[in-house]
Task: structure prediction
Amino acid sequence: MRRRTRNVILAVLAVVGLLLALGAVPGLLRSGDPYYLTATPQDESVLGENLSAINVTGMSEARYPYSTAALSAATADAPGRAGAYWRGPVGIKEAFTHSPFDELTALRQQNATAATEAGVYVHDERGLFLLEIQR
Result:
Protein backbone atom coordinates (compact mmCIF):
# COMPACT_ATOMS: atom_id res chain seq x y z
CA MET A 1 0.00 0.00 0.00
CA ARG A 2 1.30 3.39 -0.90
CA ARG A 3 2.11 5.88 1.77
CA ARG A 4 -0.38 8.42 0.41
CA THR A 5 -3.20 5.86 0.29
CA ARG A 6 -2.50 4.79 3.86
CA ASN A 7 -2.56 8.42 5.04
CA VAL A 8 -5.88 9.08 3.27
CA ILE A 9 -7.42 5.95 4.84
CA LEU A 10 -6.17 6.97 8.29
CA ALA A 11 -7.54 10.50 7.82
CA VAL A 12 -10.95 9.16 6.76
CA LEU A 13 -11.02 6.80 9.76
CA ALA A 14 -10.06 9.67 12.08
CA VAL A 15 -12.89 11.84 10.72
CA VAL A 16 -15.41 8.99 11.05
CA GLY A 17 -14.22 8.32 14.63
CA LEU A 18 -14.50 12.01 15.48
CA LEU A 19 -18.04 12.21 14.10
CA LEU A 20 -19.09 9.11 16.05
CA ALA A 21 -17.62 10.57 19.24
CA LEU A 22 -19.36 13.88 18.59
CA GLY A 23 -22.67 12.03 18.37
CA ALA A 24 -22.15 9.90 21.48
CA VAL A 25 -20.33 12.16 23.91
CA PRO A 26 -22.87 15.02 24.28
CA GLY A 27 -25.45 12.63 25.74
CA LEU A 28 -23.05 11.86 28.58
CA LEU A 29 -22.39 15.48 29.55
CA ARG A 30 -23.99 16.69 32.78
CA SER A 31 -24.03 20.09 34.39
CA GLY A 32 -26.04 21.63 37.21
CA ASP A 33 -29.25 20.33 38.73
CA PRO A 34 -31.32 17.90 36.66
CA TYR A 35 -34.57 18.85 34.96
CA TYR A 36 -37.65 16.63 35.16
CA LEU A 37 -40.73 16.61 32.97
CA THR A 38 -43.74 16.14 35.25
CA ALA A 39 -47.35 15.34 34.48
CA THR A 40 -49.61 16.81 37.15
CA PRO A 41 -53.31 15.83 37.19
CA GLN A 42 -55.64 18.80 36.74
CA ASP A 43 -59.31 19.49 37.23
CA GLU A 44 -61.21 20.01 33.97
CA SER A 45 -62.36 23.40 35.29
CA VAL A 46 -58.92 24.95 34.59
CA LEU A 47 -59.73 24.87 30.89
CA GLY A 48 -61.62 28.00 29.98
CA GLU A 49 -62.85 29.46 26.74
CA ASN A 50 -59.34 30.42 25.61
CA LEU A 51 -57.56 27.27 26.80
CA SER A 52 -57.71 23.75 25.40
CA ALA A 53 -55.81 20.49 25.80
CA ILE A 54 -53.94 18.27 23.36
CA ASN A 55 -55.20 14.71 22.95
CA VAL A 56 -52.19 12.49 23.60
CA THR A 57 -53.92 9.12 23.37
CA GLY A 58 -51.58 6.99 21.30
CA MET A 59 -48.64 9.39 21.64
CA SER A 60 -45.47 7.93 20.12
CA GLU A 61 -43.00 6.80 22.76
CA ALA A 62 -40.18 7.06 20.22
CA ARG A 63 -40.91 10.71 19.50
CA TYR A 64 -41.92 11.81 23.02
CA PRO A 65 -39.99 9.61 25.49
CA TYR A 66 -40.06 12.11 28.37
CA SER A 67 -43.76 12.95 27.97
CA THR A 68 -44.89 9.34 27.71
CA ALA A 69 -42.77 8.36 30.73
CA ALA A 70 -44.24 11.16 32.84
CA LEU A 71 -47.80 10.41 31.74
CA SER A 72 -47.47 6.67 32.35
CA ALA A 73 -46.13 7.33 35.87
CA ALA A 74 -48.96 9.76 36.67
CA THR A 75 -52.23 8.70 38.27
CA ALA A 76 -55.47 10.59 38.77
CA ASP A 77 -54.29 11.52 42.28
CA ALA A 78 -50.51 11.84 42.02
CA PRO A 79 -48.14 13.46 39.53
CA GLY A 80 -45.76 11.43 37.40
CA ARG A 81 -42.18 12.27 36.58
CA ALA A 82 -39.91 11.26 33.72
CA GLY A 83 -36.23 10.51 34.07
CA ALA A 84 -33.71 13.24 34.77
CA TYR A 85 -32.23 15.42 32.06
CA TRP A 86 -29.03 17.40 32.62
CA ARG A 87 -28.04 20.29 30.41
CA GLY A 88 -24.54 20.36 28.99
CA PRO A 89 -21.88 22.61 30.49
CA VAL A 90 -21.28 24.71 27.38
CA GLY A 91 -24.52 24.32 25.44
CA ILE A 92 -23.19 21.72 23.02
CA LYS A 93 -25.41 18.93 24.34
CA GLU A 94 -28.66 20.67 23.46
CA ALA A 95 -27.75 20.78 19.77
CA PHE A 96 -27.09 17.02 19.58
CA THR A 97 -29.53 15.37 22.00
CA HIS A 98 -33.27 15.13 22.51
CA SER A 99 -34.59 16.96 25.57
CA PRO A 100 -37.87 17.53 27.39
CA PHE A 101 -37.61 21.15 26.25
CA ASP A 102 -37.84 19.92 22.65
CA GLU A 103 -40.96 17.92 23.48
CA LEU A 104 -42.77 20.85 25.11
CA THR A 105 -41.86 23.07 22.16
CA ALA A 106 -43.28 20.49 19.73
CA LEU A 107 -46.48 20.19 21.76
CA ARG A 108 -46.82 23.99 21.92
CA GLN A 109 -46.50 24.13 18.15
CA GLN A 110 -49.22 21.49 17.72
CA ASN A 111 -51.77 23.52 19.67
CA ALA A 112 -50.88 26.99 20.92
CA THR A 113 -54.13 27.28 22.89
CA ALA A 114 -53.04 24.38 25.12
CA ALA A 115 -49.82 26.12 26.14
CA THR A 116 -49.33 28.28 29.21
CA GLU A 117 -46.24 29.80 30.77
CA ALA A 118 -46.03 26.81 33.11
CA GLY A 119 -46.37 24.08 30.50
CA VAL A 120 -48.84 22.36 28.19
CA TYR A 121 -52.25 20.87 28.99
CA VAL A 122 -52.78 17.38 27.60
CA HIS A 123 -55.51 14.80 28.03
CA ASP A 124 -55.91 11.11 27.48
CA GLU A 125 -58.49 8.52 28.53
CA ARG A 126 -57.46 8.95 32.20
CA GLY A 127 -57.99 12.70 32.43
CA LEU A 128 -56.34 16.09 32.11
CA PHE A 129 -52.66 16.68 32.92
CA LEU A 130 -50.27 19.63 32.90
CA LEU A 131 -46.88 18.77 31.44
CA GLU A 132 -44.20 21.06 32.83
CA ILE A 133 -40.47 21.09 33.44
CA GLN A 134 -39.25 21.27 37.02
CA ARG A 135 -35.81 21.31 38.58
About this structure: The mean pLDDT is 86. Helices lie at 3-24, 65-73, 93-96, 100-110.
